[in-house]
UniProtKB/TrEMBL annotation:
Pfam families for the chain: PRKCSH-like (PF12999), PRKCSH_1 (PF13015)
Organism: Auxenochlorella protothecoides
Keyword Disulfide bond tagged: yes
Protein name (Swiss-Prot/TrEMBL): Glucosidase 2 subunit beta
Positions of the UniProt region annotated as Disordered: 196-234
Length: 509
């Protein structure tokens, strides 16, 4: 009997242990995070230690809609305690922590409906999890493609840097040649300018110089001063006309005489005109060659001079002829001046073009030197992958505006066909390429200078989107590009996808 009694006692004790109520982990303790479940997994007749260590309450008071602990930890699944929190397990999707005030408020905040009374909300976690899994798979595919493209950007950047160095060497050679051409063009322009100035001064002096070749007072003394006497002169001085003709012949060769002299190769005899022209040239500064061309231009003066003789006194013929000589010299000076204008104009154009070419080459050299200097400072990123975007621009249409972003250049806003508003000049890559910064744009009226910051995202191609103006004259955007892709980002996406049951294939990068 004693044995049976001991065995019975042992069985009763075992059964008592088995049927002792306890707060079970998981769904039996509403609103508790997985890491804290052990603290709540206690027998129902035990005491719960408040999480802040400042007291304890019977386990039966957990989630009884009354806040016993000062930190509210005895009410993880109700809204009784201000400042408390509620944990949604959301199996199949993403766990979530809510403010306790949102529990049992009639709104389904958790996709598993655990924040509201049982049966109040449908469980949408599985459907949302599948959608999220598909989204992550798409993002992972794009990130892998972007990472592969980025590797090409690194190679392109190396080629671009080599090309910049070669272009810089070529431009420096071009500049040496262009500066030599500019110096030659400047010298020719200055020489022709001096010639024009010389001709202009000679022409002005010739216009102001008095006519030579005779004393007009003496001519006046030969006149009777009466019309009748002057009208009688032609018959009275016919002999003098012969003398005057000889005097004219002294000044100017007959055209046939000039032709004969040129034909037989003999030098043309010196005439009084040669002497008079030399005397006239002595009174003003006449450039070399002008007298010879003026003398040739007087080939027809012979006929003109003879036409003056009838009705004129013989003593006046040389004076009139010398007036013709002076006029011929002046006319030749003006003709030479006009002829000099065209070469000078061309020389000025050539000098200006040479200066412009040299100036543009210097500008290109300075830009390339800056790019190469910035490369050494990491302006294109650690491996210079961002250099592949130098010189490229990307745009996005938002309502009536077109936004344009040019890495390493500028950003602007364009409305219609207008010239656009400058949103800022390139400031640099921030946070290792996480953001593109543009500063010092067009000044706002009574506000700051415009600026733009674009958050970069990994993607297979470039795409500008989500352009906004969160603050006055301060613009924000998102910019997707392979240059922003990192192997660590791809690994993070793979881990997140795995949480949804994904089994991503590790593609070769």
């Amino acid at each position: 009997m004693a044995v049976c009694s001991s065995w019975g006692t042992a069985i009763l004790l075992a059964l008592a242990t088995l049927i002792t109520p306890a707060v079970e982990a998981g769904p039996d303790v509403r609103g508790v995070t997985p890491d804290l479940l052990p603290r709540y997994s206690i027998p129902s007749d035990a005491d719960f230690e408040c999480l802040d260590g400042r007291g304890s309450v019977p386990a039966s008071r957990i989630n009884d809609e009354y806040c016993d602990c000062t930190d509210g930890s005895d009410e993880p699944g109700t809204s009784a305690c201000p400042g408390g929190s509620f944990y949604c397990a959301n199996v199949g999707f993403e766990p979530r922590t809510l403010k306790a005030a949102l529990v049992d408020d009639g709104v389904c905040d958790c996709c598993d409906g655990s924040d509201e009374p049982v049966g109040s909300c449908a469980n949408t976690c599985q459907a949302r999890g599948l959608a999220r899994k598909a989204e992550l798979a798409e993002r992972l595919h794009a990130a892998r493609a972007g990472l592969q493209r980025r590797a090409q950007y690194v190679q392109e950047a190396a080629s671009k840097l080599t090309g910049w160095k070669a272009e810089l060497a070529r431009l420096r050679d071009d500049l040496s040649r262009q500066e030599a051409e500019q110096n030659a063009a400047d010298a020719l322009r200055d020489s022709l300018q001096a010639k024009e100035d010389e001709l202009k001064a000679a022409a002005e002096a010739a216009e102001k110089a008095p006519a030579s070749g005779g004393d007009t007072n003496k001519e006046d003394q030969g006149s009777t001063g009466t019309p009748d006497a002057d009208q009688a002169a032609p018959e009275a001085i016919s002999a003098d006309e012969v003398v005057a003709a000889d005097q004219v012949h002294e000044h100017v060769l007959l055209p046939e005489e000039m032709a004969e002299a040129q034909g037989d190769g003999t030098a043309q005899p010196a005439t009084q005109t040669d002497k008079d022209m030399a005397a006239a040239a002595a009174t003003v500064s006449v450039p070399p060659g002008v007298l010879g061309r003026a003398k040739t231009a007087l080939a027809d003066v012979w006929s003109a001079a003879l036409s003056l003789l009838p009705g004129s006194r013989s003593r006046s013929a040389p004076a009139v002829l010398m007036s013709k000589v002076s006029d011929a010299v002046l006319a030749q000076l003006k003709a030479d001046l006009d002829a000099a204008k065209s070469p000078l104009s061309h020389a000025r154009t050539a000098a200006s073009a040479a200066a412009t070419a040299a100036r543009e080459t210097k500008k290109a050299i300075a830009e390339l030197e800056t790019k190469l200097e910035n490369t050494g400072k990491g302006a294109y990123g650690e491996d210079s992958a961002w250099a592949a975007l130098d010189g490229r621009c990307f745009s996005a249409q938002v309502d009536k505006y077109t936004y344009e972003l040019c890495p390493f250049g500028a950003a602007k806003q364009v409305e219609g066909s207008g010239g656009g508003t400058n949103l800022g000049r390139w400031e640099g890559l921030l946070d290792d390429g996480a953001r593109l910064a543009f500063q010092r744009g067009q000044q706002c009226w009574n506000g700051p200078a415009r600026s733009l910051q674009a958050t970069t995202l990994c993607g297979p191609t470039e795409r500008l989107f989500d352009v906004s103006e969160p603050s006055r004259c301060e613009y924000a955007a998102r910019f997707e590009t392979p240059a922003a892709c990192r192997a660590a980002d791809v690994a993070a996406l793979e881990r997140e996808l795995a949480r949804y049951g994904g089994a991503p294939v590790h593609e070769e990068l």
